[in-house]
Amino acid sequence: MSAELEAMLLGAVDDARSAIAEFSGADTVGDYLGAEVEDPSSATHRFLAELPGYRGWQWAVVVAACPGATHATISEVVLVPGPSALLAPEWVPWEERVRAGDLGPGDLLAPPADDQRLVPGFMGTGDPQIDEVAVEVGFGRRQVLSLWGRADAAQRWHDGEFGPGSAMARSTRRTCRDCGFFVPLGGALGVMFGVCANEYAADGHVVDAEYGCGAHSDTPAPKGAGSPQFDPFDDGVLDLVERTEERS
C-alpha cells in the first residue's frame, strides 16, 4: 500500500462518523477510538457506541479505496463488542444443557439413542442355572456399561471431590486403599474405586483408592485424656453440708 493511499484511508474519520450518523443517528456515535489498516485497500475506523444496553460496544466502519482513487468509500458499518462489552453467555445446544445434579425427584431423563456409555446386553436363555449367573455379571439387562463408559466414569470419579487430587486427600497421608471402611467395587472398576462405609466420612460415595481423609480406620486416638489445660473436677471427693444460720 502506498503512503498516499494509507493516508487517505486513515484520514476518512469524518466520512466514517457521518456514515454511522446516517445509519443509526448522530447521538449514537461516541468518542473516536482509532483506525487500523485491514488490507492493501481498506481500513477500519472505530467509535464508542452510545446506545442504551450496549455499554462497551463499538461502531466499526470499514472504508475502502483503490490505487489512484481520490477519496475513500464506505464499505460497511457494524456494531461490535469492545473489550469491556457485556455479552450474552455462549450458546449451549438444548441436548447439552442438562448437567450433573440437575435431575430432581420425579424427573425423567432418557439416555441418547446412540449413547456411547452403553452397549447391548444379552437376553435370558430360559435356563435358571445360566440366567442366575448371567444376572450376577450383568447379563440379562438390555444394556450394560461399555468400555468407554467405564473409562469415562473412572476419569470423572478420579478427578472429582473424592479423588486423590481433592483438598481432603491432599491434607492426609493415609489412603482409602488400606482403610477398613473401604468396600471395593466389583469388576474392573474395583481396581481403583470402592464405596466408603464410614458415616462420618464420605459415607455411601464412590471414592478413589488413593483418596484419603482424617477418619481412616487406622487413625490413632489423641494422646492423653481430659482437658489439657485444667485438671478434671471430681465432686465425689467433696463433703456437702447443709448451711445453717448463725444465732446471735
From TrEMBL:
<dbReference type="Pfam" id="PF11228">
    <property type="entry name" value="DUF3027"/>
</dbReference>
<dbReference type="InterPro" id="IPR021391">
    <property type="entry name" value="DUF3027"/>
</dbReference>
<protein>
    <recommendedName>
        <fullName>DUF3027 domain-containing protein</fullName>
    </recommendedName>
</protein>
